[in-house]
Amino acid sequence: MTVLADARAAMSRDDWTAALALLADDNSVEAAEVRAVAHYGKGEFEVAVAEWESLYDRHREANDHPAAAWAAANVALYLLVDTGLMAPVRGWVARADRELQDVGEVPAHALLAMVRTYERFMSGDPDGAHRQALRSMELGARLNVPPAVMLGQVATARLLIADGDVEQGLAALDDAALRLMSGAVDHFTTGMLYCELVCAAQGLLAYDRAREWTDVMEHWRHGRAYGGIHGRCRVHRAELLRVSGPGVEAELEALKACDELRPWMRREFGWPLVELGNIRLRLGDLPGAEDAYMQAYRRAWPPLPGIALLRKDQGDLESAAELIAGAVDNPPDLPWKERPPFGDLRLAPLLDAQSEIAFANGDAATAVQSASRLRDIAARFASSGLAACAALATARAHLLAGDASFAIGDASAAVVHWCELDAPYEAAVARVVLGSAYAATGDTARSRLDWQAAHAEFVSFGAVKRAAEVIALLNGESALPRQASLAATMVWTGGHWHFAFRDAEIVLGNLRGLQYLAALLSRPGHEFRAMDLCGGHDVGDPIPILDQRARYAYRRRLDEVDQDIAEAKANNDLARAELARRDREFLLEELNGAVGLGGRLRETGGAAERARTSVTRSLRYALDRLTDHDEVLGTHLKRTVRTGSCCSYMPDTVAPISWTVTR
Question: If you count Cβ atoms within 10 Å of the first and of the last residue's Cβ in the chain, which end, N or C, has fewer?
């Protein structure tokens, strides 16, 4: 075998380091292309892009214009897939165009049409995306570039859905899924397009289809996916676990996704951060949700509607209403495949949140308006999830208007839709409203049944705050079976932790997480700062936020963005200039965040963030070990121990356990 063949074989085993070592002394163009892929697979995103940029320069110097265009198109593709920065993408597309001015049709034309399709899609230009998708399919078929054909097909299907033709669009996506399963394209394209399929389903709130495609993607990725695809799959799994529960598993999946995607993503890293915040919000970890949302916001990724719902849960209804009203009137233009910056589908989650906030605020007029707009969207886009949102919003509006009997029918429909979609958390939210509607009509027995069912689902999910709110609705006289308080002990003796619960005794070693657990159990309901729990120990050595190579790359991107802004202004293209300006804001924020006073490099997270990560990891490991010995006790603690910047033990109000801790 040749060195190149050996390197490719190593890459097929995900041994990126070995592949790079084999190619270290090979300066050929072929080796450079393989090196670019290996660096990407290893998580060295900027190095991979730099390899393609270097290839572009080499081909230009050799006057090999088709090869230079191919390299420039690959730079644009990498930037498109992972950065969320459209201005640099357009810059590299323009470079490729210049190389192809006097060249007949070559594969680079198909690759460029493929890149342009999604540059237009994520820049909010569906008509332009449709034209490029047709061209991508045509050129891809003629020039034998299968990824261009597949991506054009998927983009066309998504545009059909965005235009209201949901049935035809989903049928086209199903066809694409079958072709992906048959191995029609390379692994990189396959992973990227599986992600597209799931994003399309999530955008419709079609959780059943999203679950099917995520399962297929999860099965496929083992042994095939590389780069950021693993992390993207984890985000999709976290999104679905946010719907089905348990919440602790959803949060863990989101945290793993953030860890895995950090080397690849740039501005789009806001996506997994917002999902982490959404999960923590449901779990009742308000400080943790705030932390995740603000990290996303600093990456120019507005965390809406999550941050508005957080303000509601924090009791700041005025800010919540103001934030969500602004988002509904001017939806964030994010380069997000799940909720692209055009069409009415992106409004559905915002209107759903506005309905919830208006209901909490007693704002009948806004509740009626939100419900009406959601019904219009649900009528246009056939989706059980959208129908459920519209029905629940209508029920809330009826309740605020004093029409409880009408609210019962709509809330009941919402419950049924969510149950059919296997979305127990959403069904529980709808049951709370349904119970309130029954209570308003004087049907106490039915109201209590729905509240009890909602409480059970919230407890199962781990949504302690929501569960407590339902207990408040039941006025402390819940018909749920009352259970006597159980007793448990946690004692440090003989160099081990001894647990006694019911008829079992468990002995575990001196895990750091158990030390933290003992502190939490000693003061139920008290919030401990993660930094105080670990005493500043085990927070890890700080590392630079951006290494030198990444900082140089960001500065190159800034130059490309500035050129894009200048070109947009010269053409009086104000929308393009505004999108590029946001890219510029993100890059400047990243660079400013990486450099402190005197030009010194700032380091990751700060001690508080590293403490949060360390304490959370230690507690979870300890609870896993406890669960291995006693599933009931371990499950109880996983549900009632809250982690984040602050940690606490929140006792179960229905089946309490009284702890005695001796240290």
Answer: N
Q: Exposed/middle/buried for 57, CB within 10 Å: 0-12, 13-18, 19+?
A: exposed
Q: Which residues contact 430 (CB under 8 A, 6 or more apart)?
A: 388, 392, 395, 411, 414, 415, 418
Q: In what order do the strands lie in the sheet with 528-529?
A: 528-529, 646-649, 641-642
Phi, psi angle pair for 528, to nearest 5°: -100, 130
- Give helix 384-400 / helix 347-361 axis angle, nearest 10°: 20
**What are the tens digits of pLDDT across the range 326-376?**
999 999 988 888 899 999 999 999 999 999 999 999 999 999 999 999 999
User: CA dist 221 to 20, 63, 214, 406, Å?
Assistant: 22, 39, 10, 48
Structure tokens at 616: 């959370």
Phi then psi for 499, rounded to 5 degrees? -105, 140
What is the three-class DSSP state of 252?
helix
What is the C-alpha to C-alpha distance for residues 439 and 441, in angstroms, rounded to an integer? Answer: 5
Phi-psi region of 144 (alpha: psi -120 to 50; beta: other; left: phi over 0): left
Residue-wise burial string across 96-120, b where 16 or more C-beta atoms lie within 10 A, e elsewhere: bbebbeeeeebbbbbbbbbbbbbbb
DSSP summary character for residue 601: B
DSSP 3-state helix, strand, coil percentages of the chain (rounded to 5)?
Answer: 70, 5, 25
Q: What are phi and psi of 491, to 5 degrees?
A: -125, 135
pLDDT in tens, 416-448: 999 999 999 999 999 999 999 999 999 999 999
Q: pTM for the complete prediction?
A: 0.77
Task: Determine contact, residues 418/410, Cβ cutoff 8 Å.
Answer: no
Closest to 79 measured CA to CA, from 547, 544, 559, 553: 553
